[in-house]
Amino acid sequence: MNRRPVFLLTVLGFGFAFFYVPILSMIVYSFNASRLATVWGGFSTKWYMSLWSNTQVIDALILSLKIALVSASIATILGTMAAIALVRMGKFRGRTLFSGLTTAPLIMPEVITGVSSLIFFLLLAQWIGWPSQRGFTTITLAHITFSMVFVTTIVQARLLQFDRTIEEAAMDLGSKPWQVLFDITLPVISPAILSGWLLAFTISLDDVVITSFTTGPGSTTLPLLIWSKVKLGVTPDINALATLMVVTVGLCVVIAGIVMNRAEARRLADERLAFRANG
Amino acid sequence: MAALKAWFDRRGWADLIVGLPYLWLVLFFLLPFLIVVAMSVATKTPTAPPFSFGGEHPWINFDGYARIFGDALYVRAFLISLGNAALATVFCLLIGYPMALALTRVSRSWRNILLMLVILPFWTSFLLRVYAWMGLMGKSSWFNTGLTDLWNWVVPIDWAVKSIPMMHSNFAVILVMVYTYLPFMILPLYASLERLDPTLDEAALDLGSRPWQVFLDVTLPQSIPGIIAGGLLVFIPAAGELVIPTLVGDAASPMIGRVISDQFSQARDWPMASSVAVALLAIMVIPTMAYNHYQARAEGLK
Question: Are the Cβ atoms of B257 and A105 closer than 8 angstroms?
Answer without folding.
Answer: no
